[in-house]
Each structure stands twice: as structure tokens, then as C-alpha cells.
């Protein structure tokens, strides 16, 4: 039952009941619409109260109907809001938990609104490449003012109800209540206003002009690379320049235009990719999860310190172990700097920060890890060293403890094999800076038990990470693909491009950072060490002579003042030394520089990711194409409004991609075998 009806004298109570967030499904919309029709016609009903549960009034559209005919079937949400507008009796909305998107538009169409102070309020449709399509851009500025609406709607920003209720001259909420008093307060108000006429409708209010705020918002959003934010601003302009019905019509036209845009398709794909990633074969709702309360981190370098910070911020107790006293002090200082920055930015109270600090214990001895529920190793990327560490951890950790390696490339099964508990070993590959980056690759070893994997996924969720499960291979999903991407970038240098030309082309397409600026930031010496390790292990796929020579010159990137660019602080400038290195390299390998178009640069880089992604799917390393896209959206700066490398390749069409692959396979200096079929 999607709407539960009950009577309290002359009051009709309508409870939205479509778990988990009362999504506005076709069945719910139909039931609510029909209940409102009956209530309006029933002389025994004086007022209507609409409420949800304590967790949600409504989270908006039912995502299970996205792309289905039911999503737009009548009564659609605009029709439901119009029905509320036409009511001859007062309708009160009692809001707890959240009112987002269409859920807030529904509440805005009611005559009165009561809310619990900590409820989350917003119109986040822009995050799906859309604008509110049921009057939200017309009613919301009439409720809170155009200036605040321009801050929230084009950015998809959410606010606490209590903060919105404190805005001067707001007409969004009539009363702020505690959770336990909400329903009674709403019932009392409904009785009080039952005879009040005329009914207060937001559509009948006017929104004061704010020309400077409008101009600033339009300029800000016009500079963005996808259309939804600017469309939101233009729809909001209609709230002050057009009659209500014309503004709603313009809003709806804008919504329909955005719905068919490639950017919205990409953003909706990303939204569903995040939800699909949690569906892992062999992991069910009833799969046991272990209680991971105390986490040990071995290694207090940049990564280890960042992992410890992420765990602390997630509310866990942390034991940070580093044998070197100076390194331990640096790690703790980096952690403290992050925590204090959160306090300074107002994201964390001083009291809460003190509580986090109290949850941190440090030691120079492995023995301090003995009582931890999960131990994460974050030492130097060397197989022999990691195997030695895991033998020690296996001997000292309690029997039920999980052991995780933060390796970015090494074989997790070979690490697990040196322990007596391979079923309790897995990879947890964090991305730097670990306290900030959302992505966590959860690497499932051949022996990793289902409950161990389920527990690791729950741990990742607790510390705010976007988890993607990967199988064991060199580099897992993200780094294996980035190797092919960087390989193509280096081929482009061989063939006549400069680092700046390659970076400019892919950044103009939408990447936050091109491959050469990216590797300069990460440190060229990091990938150099990995190549050296692979050469030692006999797993080096292709020698990177040019990149090795750059490192031999001590050009490790920003940290050394020079890499593929010269640096003054963080500013990258073309390097004469690199230009000379490139010229000498081309002469040595016998390649005549040619003119390479930006379109070829972009396609070779993008399709190299997609081709390697196909291989990962064929090998079972990645579970689904959308998981691969999520890795790149969350960890590698792939533009979200482009959907990810697999989505991009699919959008181009199989025939067009195959033709481009044949072109690249014919480039003399490229790798024909790579561009061939899977």
C-alpha cells in the first residue's frame, strides 16, 4: 500500500508508504491523487494532512522507475502538484528526515508545512543533469527568496530545515518541531486552519527581483561545461519575470530539453553506477558482517597517515604503527592538520575533533596491532617486503582479524598465501590523498571469504568511500587501465606531440588534468619504481624508455621542481630540457615528428581506457562496465557529465569505435595487438 489513509474526525491523514524514502512512484502518485480527489468532494473532510515516516517525507522520484513508462504516466508529478493547487480545503505537509527533489515540490504545493529541524531540504535534480520539473523553480524562490534559490538549485545544494527556517521573510515552513511532536503539531495546525480562507498558496506570492544575484549566477553557470546549472538559473529567472503558469510551462520545457541531453544521460548513468556497485555476487543482505571497530594501520607515510585519518573521521578507533619515530611524528602531524582544517572550515566542531583525537593511538611496535579487528598494511610497494609484513601480522593478530593490503599493483593472492588465514585477506586500495579521495578498490582474492568481503564493503561505506570490487590482476581496475592510457600519451610524445598539447586536448574535452600534469603531481618516481619492480618480477609489459630517462635526470615532477614541465610552485611551464629530451629520443628511435590533431589525442586516450576495460570485463576482474566507469569518475578525474570511459565508448557506437581502433592499429609506432579485438 503506497498511501495509508486514516481519519481523525474531520481530518484526513495520508501517509506516504513507499520504502525506503517514499519515492514518488506511479502507484503512489495515483493513490495520492485519488485520495485528494475524494477528500475535496467529501463534505465530512475539512482538512488534509500528508506525512511520511521519520526517515523521509519523500526523496523525490522513484529511481526504480527511471527510464520506464510509469515514470511519466498520469498523474505525473506536475499533475499531482496542480491538483494540490486546486484543492478547496487546506493541505498540511509534515516533513521529517528529508524532502528532496519532487518530494520538496510536493510539499511546496501544500498550503502549510511543518518540519523537523534536522530534515534535509533541497532540489538536487541538477546532479542528474536536470532541473526541477514540477514547479520547484517557481515555488521555491517564492518561499525562500530568489538569492537563496540561486545558491541552492543550480548547485543541487541541500540545507538543514532549521537553517532555512531562520532565513528572514521565509515562507517555506510555518513551524519547526521536534520529531516526536511533529505529527501532533501538524494535526493541531490542520484543525486550526480548516476554516481559514483564502488558502495560502506559494504560487500566489511574488518573488522579489535580485538582478545582481541573477547576473552573477548566470555568469558562474555559463562557464560550466554542462547545461543543467544554467538552465536552472534561467528557470528561476522566470519566477520573477513571468506569471506563475508561464514560468511553470517554461520550466517544464527546459526539463524536457535536458532530459534528452547527453550530459543528463551520463549523469544518470553515474547515479545508477553508484548503486549497482554494491551488488556483488555471493554477497546477500543476510551475509554476516564482522564488527570492525578498531582499525590498525601499519605505515605512517602519506598513504598510511591518510588511511588513518579517513578511519578516524569515520568514527573508528585507530592504531597507527610506524617503526621510525620521525616518520610517525610526520604522519600524526599530517593527520592533525587535516582534522584542524575541518574545524577551521566549520565542518567539524572542536569538541568532536577532540573526540577523534582521543580515538587515535600510536606506536612504533607491531605488537600494538594485536587487538585490532582490521589491519591495513601501507608500506613500500615491494612484494618481498609486503610478504614479510604479512607473515608478522598473521602471527600477532587475533584469529578473527582481517588483514588488508593497500597495494596498488601487486598480487593480493601471493600476499595472502604467506598467511595461515588467506580467507581473511583482501586488498583495500585507497587513492591519494586517502582522507579526501572517494574511491576505494576492494580487491577480492581467490580465497577471500564472502563475509570478509561484505565486512570490507561495510567498512568502506562507514568511512565514506565509494567502493568498487575488483579481482586480482596487475593494477586491478584503475591502475591497469591508466597504464594503457599513459602508454598512449607517451606514444603521442614519440610521434610529435608536446606534453602541453596532449594535456590541453584532453582537458578541453573535460578531464580535470591531463596525463602529464597528473603524473607530475603524483610523482614520476612512483611509476618508475613500479616499472623497476615489474622488470624484476618479469611482469613488465613494455619498457618506457622516455619516462625512465626523465626520471634518470631527477625530474620527478612538482616535488622536484621539474618533470614533464618546469614548475614555479604549482604552476606548470613548458620545459626546454624536456623538449630537447623528446627531440633526442625521436632521433634515437627513428620516428619523424608528425602533426597530430586534438581529436586523435582525445580518441586515443579515451579509447585506450575503454579497450582495456573490455579486457577486464572479459577476464572477470571487473564485474560490470558501470563499475569501471565509477572507478574513473571517483578516482581519476573523469568528468562526471561524460559518464565514464565505458559509457563514452558505448555512446559513440560499436561501429564507430571499431573503425577508430582500426585506424590506431595502423599507426606504425603504436601497438596493433592492443587495438585488436578482445
What does this structure look like?
This protein is of the alpha/beta class and 678 residues long. The protein folds into 3 domains: 3-260, 2-enoyl-CoA Hydratase, Chain A, domain 1 (Alpha-Beta Complex); 294-470, NAD(P)-binding Rossmann-like Domain (Rossmann fold), CATH 3.40.50.720; 478-675, Orthogonal Bundle (N-(1-d-carboxylethyl)-l-norvaline Dehydrogenase, domain 2). Helix content is 48%, strand content 12%. The protein has 28 helices and 19 strands. The strands form 4 sheets. It has an 8-stranded mixed β-sheet with strand order 12-11-10-13-14-15-16-17, with helices on both faces. Helix 4 crosses helix 9 (228-241), helix 8 (211-222) runs antiparallel to helix 9 (228-241) and helix 18 runs antiparallel to helix 24 (598-619). The protein is globular and about 90 Å long. The two termini are 49 Å apart. Belongs to the enoyl-CoA hydratase/isomerase family. In the N-terminal section; belongs to the enoyl-CoA hydratase/isomerase family. Its main location: other. Residues 294-470 form the 3-hydroxyacyl-CoA dehydrogenase NAD binding domain. This is 3-hydroxyacyl-CoA dehydrogenase.
The DSSP helix count reads: 28
Shape: globular
Main sheet makeup: 8 strands, mixed
Strand order of the largest sheet: 12-11-10-13-14-15-16-17
List how many beta strands DSSP finds: 19
Subunit arrangement of the protein = single chain
In the residues, how many domains can be counted? 3
User: Mind telling me the C-alpha Rg?
Assistant: 28 Å
Helix-residue proportion: 40-55%
CATH topology-level name of the largest domain: 2-enoyl-CoA Hydratase, Chain A, domain 1
Structural class category: alpha/beta
CATH superfamily of the largest domain: 2-enoyl-CoA Hydratase, Chain A, domain 1
Mean pLDDT: 95
Strand content: 5-15%
The CATH level-2 architecture of the largest domain is identified as: Alpha-Beta Complex
Intertermini distance: 49 Å
Poorly predicted regions are none
CATH C-level category of the largest domain: Alpha Beta
